[in-house]
Amino acid sequence: MSADPTRLRARPGLGRSRGGLPPGWKLDVPAVADDARPLALAVVFHGGGSTAEAGLALLPAHPGLIRLAPQSLGTTWDIVRGGFGHDVERIDDALETVFALVAVDPRRVALAGFSDGASYALSLGVGNGDLVTRVVAFSPGFLAPGVQRGRPRIFATHGTEDRVLPIDRCSRRLVPALRGAGYDVTYEEFDGGHGVMPHHARFASDWIVRAVPEL
After folding, report:
1. What is the residue extent of each domain of the chain?
2. Which of 43, 73, 140, 194 could form a disulfide with 164 if both were Cys (CB 3.0 to 4.6 A apart)?
3. CB–CB of 131/109 below 8 Å?
4. pTM of the predicted model, to two decimals?
5. 26-209 falls under which CATH superfamily?
6. Quick one: pLDDT band at residue 1, thresholds 50, 70, 90?
7. What's the Cα-to-Cα distance from 87 to each of 53, 63, 73, 145, 212, rounded to whole Å?
8. What's the mean pLDDT in 43-47?
């Protein structure tokens, strides 16, 4: 591991094929993808005990959006199990592969996730703001301490009746802390439990694609 275990070093336009994605990972590339018009990319992290397939479904398909859904090595992401580790390494390698396969707009690279995956997206996004421009966090639980780079914009949602990650000790603490640290956070609460509202998911896909005003 590097001295900074949160660091993602892959960059759009500089990718190299690593021989394909790990087993179980999902990649959705729109049919319109071509080198002449780079697309947005969202890396979507599943919740604890879930799968890459479920992660991919968190964000609706969009003709301007490439979706990459990793599968955690354990039942959930390494940070929840004790700290950043091999999941980060595999994500970095996968990004190298994706950047070699398809043209990705460096202004529109996002991390997204639900529950444990939302905590992971926030923690990795804050630590890699020189790569990541937007973060989507559906029902996050925490933000792991670490180096902060850049200022990715953040969209977060949380159910007021969440019994898994109660809103009062999660998003209602996280969001003010992020805003206090200078992050632009769009935050919406909804009547409901631990889940993702369809209209929030649709908004998130479009929000990532429309990160560049002229698009």
Report:
1. 26-209
2. 194
3. yes
4. 0.94
5. Alpha/Beta hydrolase fold, catalytic domain (3.40.50.1820)
6. very low
7. 17, 28, 7, 17, 29
8. 98
Residue 127 Cα to chain centre, angstroms: 12
Distance CA 5, CA 78 (A): 11
